[in-house]
Amino acid sequence: MTATPKAEKERRLTYAQAIREALVEEMERDPSLLLLGEDIGEPGGVFGVTQGLLQRFGAERVLDTPISEEAVIGTALGAALLGVPTVAEIMFSDFATLAMDQIVNQAAKFRYMTGGRTSAPFVIRMVTGTAGATAAQHSQSLEAWFTATPGLKVVTASTPADAKGLLKSAIRDPDPVLFFEHKLLYNSRGAVPAGVDSLIPLGEGRVAREGSDVTLVAYLYMLPRALKAAEALAGEGISVEVWDPRTLVPFDRAGLRRSLEKTGRLVIVQEAPRRNGFCAEIAAIAAEEFFPLLKAPIKRVCGTNTPMPYAPELEQFVIPDEERIAAGVREVMRNAVRSASGS
Amino acid sequence: MQSLASYTPAFLKELYRKMVLIRRFEERAAELRSLGYIPGFLHPYIGQEAVAVGACAALGPHDYITSTHRGHGHILARGGDPRYMYAELFARRDGYNRAKGGSLHIANIELGIIGANGIVGGGIPIAVGAGLALKQARQIAVHHPDDPRARRADGVAVTFFGDGASNQGAFHESLNLAALWRLPVIFICENNLYGEFTPQHKHQTIRDIATRASSYAIPGLIADGNDVLDVYRVVSKAAEDARKGRGPTLVECKTYRHRGHYEGDMGQYRPAEEVAFWLEADPIKNYRRLLLAGAICTEDELRALDQAVEQELEEAVAFAKASPHPAPEEALEDVFVESYGGRALL
Ligand SMILES: Cc1ncc(C[n+]2csc(CCOP(=O)(O)OP(=O)(O)O)c2C)c(N)n1
Ligand SMILES: [Mg+2]
């Protein structure tokens, strides 16, 4: 890429703007695409992501819904089964629990149950994670639940560019996609390619920072924290490669492998509670398939096995911060069981 | 009962034939299950045939239905082919769902059948989505008349469900949403007086489920669910409203299942007098009498229709028996349309 610094600067968008740009471009590209969600129209969404879309596309395409998550997701699914693509917003991903039948029993399995004779091209935007004192029912990171349900694709977008490119791919994908976007990233800025066809394919991870000693896997709000930890560790002489899977289903095994071939060490970070999080799946993949590449035991740095507390200092205790991430990396560097040259 | 004068004899006979087709399809299915041909659940539709047949007679080629665990009647009434249905029940490769669904999941979008459903109330919101797509088709027809989706601009979505399902949140959310957006959806509640083994008075405080429509300011109509012409009349009215943009209707059809909740349930929780009353109100027996009394057909003609149904089902069973079993590895197919290299994304 040889974009001029000036042009790049012009194209620096927030994560929220990048999501909006993806929605606008895809709605222009496909005039049948509909948006559904609570307060997405006139108010522009609780986090302002859909601001201006009602004015631009009209109330027939930007549909403010009653507070009825189950009916909203079922409606998005039913329209999609008839060939009308939809993007439904779940205002806080915690509320997906009220739509679990439609997501898990219906959408995920429709194609399979019908022997491949139907498809449901729709996206559920899942507003996820902590946001500072949002407490136990507005802060959860539930992405791993859905990875345990075959038939759903699960996307976790961590930068503005990824948010745009992955959302566009999700919208054009013929299967149901859950698109997790993190509240604390909405105001983060980054370069975002212009262009209607700047898609990022599902199933391709990204090296967010190159390094050679240890692979640090992180996504969503843990990605900026992992990058900061990597920066700090560089000062200690530890070269950290930060790798963002970008989509959990499909998962980029080859990308993870390439990084482990370089580093031989693996630390995985997630905001969600430790037990049965997606970290565990990544650790299992690495242990089963890439064991010969590993020089040290795998380390997980995760949220605690607690609901999310309210007090900011409790919340920050629960989710991994730079210091805990860095400590995890140092531990793996100390714990090397096989010498770098040995295997 | 209705006057027959306003209908053509061909139409009236077709209603009869369809009801007999469903009855005999179900009776044979029960038999075939006891012989070991059908590995899964069966929830027979016997006794409720007039609802599916009367309702689907009011539908056209661009309409859609969602169905339930008790779905064979709806699927046959909507044009499902008994060959592919039996093949599906037998878990064979030629089944509608290629042996991945079974009785609870038979679907065929081309026929307007979005699917039976194993979740009580699960199909109701999906029908609202179909209604939204159909409403959008009216817009497409104006702006892009060549788009194939414009063809269904007069379409309606019908969702069948039971009295038990009317206690689900999905039912209430869906009525509210369809009413709010004036979607072309017809909610057809088959009140057969039981949700599984629980009589209606023990699962809700109302007798007429149609009254729930008033909470959403939409029409709530009651039909005699054992009178195919009454169902046809009421659903036709609801369909006309929906097609004209006047929004959804809740139709309650009062009916009864003759057998247990599923094949194998003896239904002993039901009072004998109640069962006797409803067996007397058999929708097929009474309609047969009506056709004879109205001189629409002779006994011989009806017998010929019965025999044609037997013949069709005989062939359907033979077709299903001859259909191959799926290969075990087919379990890995059909999880996704686009699977980026791995069939099931293992
Ligand atoms: C969500 C859900 N809860 C429970 C069941 C188990 N179940 C299957 S059918 C049924 C009864 C449904 O009653 P109704 O809606 O009146 O339909 P009917 O069986 O009378 O046709 C129940 C409880 C289910 N399949 N799904
Ligand atoms: Mg019932």
Descriptive account of the structure:
The complex is a heterodimer of chains A (343) and B (346). Chain A is α/β, with parallel strands linked by helices and 343 residues long. Chain A folds into two domains: 186 residues, Thiamin diphosphate (ThDP)-binding fold, Pyr/PP domains (Rossmann fold); 136 residues, Rossmann fold (3-Layer(aba) Sandwich), CATH 3.40.50. In chain A, 36% of the residues lie in helices and 19% in strands. In chain A, strand 6, helix 8 and strand 7 form a beta-alpha-beta unit. The C terminus of chain A is likely disordered. Chain B is globular and about 55 Å long. Chain B is built from ten helices and eight strands. With 346 residues, chain B is α/β, with parallel strands linked by helices. Classes of the chains: A alpha/beta (343), B alpha/beta (346). Chains A and B meet through helix 4, helix 5 and helix 6 of A and helix 5 and helix 6 of B. The structure holds thiamine diphosphate and magnesium ion. Magnesium ion binds next to strand 5 of chain B.
